[in-house]
Specification:
By secondary structure, this protein is α+β, with helices and mostly antiparallel strands. The protein has helices spanning 6-18, 26-35, 61-80, 149-161, 181-191, 195-205, 225-237, 271-289, 317-335, 349-354, 359-375, 403-413, 419-423, and strands at residues 47-50, 107-110, 117-120, 126-131, 134-139, 141-142, 145-146, 210-213, 250-254, 260-264, 309-310, 383-386, 395-398. It is built from 13 helices and 13 strands. A hairpin with a 2-residue loop joins strand 4 and strand 5.
């Protein structure tokens, strides 16, 4: 019946769409999977990236920020000059689509009452830095050139040394981006559409990216690996719910002890794109830019560079009440996250490949077995897979809970099954 009634009609709609769209799905996917979601981005949609676990090139917060921010900007320059080559499928000459890179920088998600939008500006010559409840605008260029790592470190240190207090409502302002989307959209329209609030919000939303100089110390600690990793992951995922700007394409986070990480918004691109940037930054920071013997960035400071400027806000009490409400709901969500992150040392993908098994398939079956042993039942399982072999491709869904995987799990938990039977 479908083949003679609804099927041909849907096929005609798709054929019609092919006349004006470059991809059958991606525009709908972006809108309906991401932008129309009315729940919090924090935890539900945004994701994070960790620092190298066992390497800490410096414990100076401003220095780590200086090198890493410079590395991020070098990557942006390569991107602007179209010097980043498309990624090729392993062992082939087939390129993956690079369209998602276009909105990596100078991008922010803008809240709306019914649907959000993505705002991307062609260029941005500043970043916005958050520290102790204050927002600072930092110019990235001086005398027509990009700031050097030591000069960026100098700017970060000036922010760390700034004794000024947050303005009323400023400290928890970013909680608006952590809560429900509709209150944030209404609040933005009512209180951030004119005057100094609009200017300051524009500075945030049109910044190259957002930076948080975090007051806490995070990272893997050998003496307490489990608790330290859990704390590190949760800090990157949600922090205090008011110290990351969850609407920005990504927030770069540097902790007090020099560890760092990222929190990325999901609508503009998928994780492999951010991972490509992050791998470049980690390699450039640790192995190419490097640090002086005293832990500072290499090079000299420059007293002629103007100080970072504080963003100015005039946030009325009614708006502060909305901020508090958003913070409360976001905090409840963050406290409900039961997250356990740990380094697994027993074996890696090498051993799995020696067993002539796909590492991905191995992990998926391990997840099925673990879930069944924990819950005593199977459930629908979603594994993301990339579709970037196609123009503007994003992701598709692999349903890894199959009849075969269920049979494997049942054989593994059945004590009467022999090893030979389980291998079948």
């Amino acid at each position: 019946e479908f083949a003679v009634t609804l099927g041909p009609k849907l096929q005609w709609y798709l054929k019609l769409k092919s006349w004006w769209a470059t991809n059958y799905v991606s525009d709908w996917w972006e809108e309906y999977i991401y932008l129309r979601g009315r729940g919090p981005l924090m935890v539900n949609s945004n994701y994070y990236a960790m620092d190298l676990l066992y390497i800490l090139p410096t414990q100076i917060q401003a220095a780590r920020a200086g090198n890493a921010i410079h590395a991020i900007l070098l990557y942006r320059r390569r991107l602007d000059r179209e010097e980043i080559k498309p990624i090729l499928l392993l062992g082939s000459t087939v390129p993956l689509c690079s369209a998602q890179w276009e909105r990596m920088f100078n991008t922010s998600r803008i809240p709306g009452e019914e649907t959000d939008t993505i705002q991307h500006v062609r260029d941005s010559k500043h970043i916005v830095v958050f520290h102790k409840g204050r927002y600072f605008k930092v110019w990235l260029y001086h005398d027509g050139r990009l700031l050097k790592p030591r000069e960026i470190e100098q700017q970060m240190q000036r922010i760390l040394d700034d004794p000024s207090e947050p303005q009323p409502g400023e400290a928890k302002l970013a909680a608006l981006t952590a809560g429900e989307r509709v209150p944030w959209a209404k609040c933005r329209q009512a209180y951030f559409g004119r005057g100094k609030n609009k200017q300051s919000l524009d500075a945030v939303e049109k910044a190259a990216f957002f930076v948080t100089l975090d007051e806490s110390e995070q990272g893997y600690r050998k003496e307490d690996p489990d608790a330290s990793m859990d704390s590190y992951a949760k800090s990157l995922l949600h922090g205090k719910c008011s110290d990351r700007w969850f609407d920005k394409s990504f927030t770069f986070i540097v902790f007090k002890n020099g560890k760092m990480g990222m929190n990325a918004e999901h609508s503009w691109a998928d994780a492999p794109i951010v991972a490509h940037l992050w791998e470049y930054v980690l390699a450039m920071d640790c192995f190419q830019l490097g640090y002086a013997e005293d832990g500072h960035c290499k090079g000299d400071t420059n007293p002629n560079i103007p100080y970072p400027t504080r963003l100015q806000w005039d946030i009325p009490e009614e708006c502060q009440e909305v901020i508090e409400t958003s913070l409360n709901s976001a905090s409840i969500l963050a406290n409900d996250v039961d997250f356990h992150s740990f380094p697994f040392h027993t074996f890696g993908k090498g051993l799995i490949k020696k067993c002539k098994t796909s590492p991905d398939a191995f992990v998926q079956l391990a997840l099925q077995l673990a879930h069944y042993k924990d819950m005593g039942k199977f459930c629908l399982t979603y594994e993301a897979s990339m579709t970037r072999l196609f123009r503007e491709g994003r992701t598709e869904t692999v349903r890894s809970c199959t009849m075969e995987s269920c049979n494997f799990v049942l054989a593994m938990v059945d004590p009467t099954q022999t090893v030979e039977q389980r291998l079948k």
